[in-house]
Structures are given as C-alpha cells and as structure tokens.
Amino acid sequence: MAEAKTGDAVQFLDLLLDYFADGTRWNQGDLDDGRGRRCLVGAIHYLRRVHQVSSGAVESLLQEALPPCYCHLASFNDRCANIAELRALIRNARTRAIAMAQAEHGRAAAMLSERWWMRIGRKHDRPLPGDAHRAAKTERLAA
Fold first, then answer.
1. CA 100, CA 94: separation in Å to the nearest integer?
2. Is residue 12 a contact partner of residue 55, using CB atoms and an 8 Å limit?
3. Do residues 12 and 53 make contact, with C-beta atoms less than 8 angstroms apart?
4. Whole-Å CA distances, 43 to 50, 88, 98
5. What DSSP line would sit under 75-95, residue for residue?
6. Nearest one of 40, 116, 99, 45 to 72, comparing CA atoms
7. pLDDT for 63-93, tens place per residue?
8. CA-to-CA distance for 38 and 25, rounded, in angstroms?
9. What is the number of other CB atoms lying within 10 angstroms of the CB of residue 100?
10. Cβ(91)–Cβ(17) under 8 Å?
11. pLDDT digit string (tens) for 87-106?
12. Which residue, 11, 41, 52, 60, has fewest beta-carbon neighbours within 10 Å?
C-alpha cells in the first residue's frame, strides 16, 4: 500500500471513529435503520459516498484487525458487545495503518539514501584531476 493510500486510510478510520464517537449512530443487524444509525459496513459505505474516497484499504485493514473467530466485518458488528469493542477494532486498524505508513516511509528513505550513496560513490570512483600525473610520478620514484 502506498504511503498516500495509507494516509488516506488513517483519515478514513478517523472519520469512522468520529461517526461512532458516542455510539448513538451505531446499529446492529442492518446496514442502515433509516434514521442515521448504521452498522460498521453501512458507515463505511456512507462515508465513502459522502466524502467520495476509496474505502478498499480501510476494509482490508479492518478485516486484518478482526479477532480470529470472525471472518466478516458484518458478523463482528452484529456480535459486538458494545460500541467500545467496535471502536477498539477501528483503533487497531488505525494503528496498523500508521505502522504501515511509517514502514513505507522508512523504505522510501532507505531507497533514497541508497541512491544517494551510489551517486556519491560513483563520483569518488572517478579519478581526480592530476591523479594520472601523481601515479606516474609515484611509479618513477618506486623504480
């Protein structure tokens, strides 16, 4: 996942945390109750539509953050004990997104550093002006 995409995922997860801030907009058993209350999947669809942003990375991060006994976001939502459990899942996915962004940033920095050292190394491999003259002088002195 590219750093920009990861940053977008963090922002989207922040939107989800805001949406479910006090729990009054959370719904279980249905995507949307018609009065603004939505389940996790319904809120993802709603926020994607309203903010016109991709949610694929967010859904993947949430899926990876699911406890092992769950295989779908909808089943997790419908079996959640309370809003705190749902928000904990979102925060876990957000932590993963941040870690991925930092890892991507580290890889990009390492690549730039490697390119820089390769460029510098090549410059130092070239003979400096006067090196041929010094080398010939050294050979004459050694002989």
1. 10
2. yes
3. yes
4. 10, 16, 21
5. HHHHH-SSHHHHHHHHHHHHH
6. 40
7. 999 999 998 999 999 999 999 999 999 999 9
8. 6
9. 20
10. yes
11. 999 999 999 999 988 887 76
12. 52
The single residue listed with the structure tokens 């491999």 is: 125
Quick one: CA torsion of 11, 16, 18, 19, rounded to 10 degrees?
140
Q: Which string of b and e fits 23-61 if b means at least 16 CB within 10 Å? A: eebbbeeebeeeeebbbbbbbbebbbeeeeeebebbbeb
pLDDT tens by residue, 107-121: 666 666 666 666 666
pTM of the complete model: 0.70
Residue carrying structure tokens 């309203």? 50
Give φ, ψ of 118 to 5 degrees.
-65, -40
Residue for token digits 């922002």? 11
- Give residue for tokens 């669809």: 45
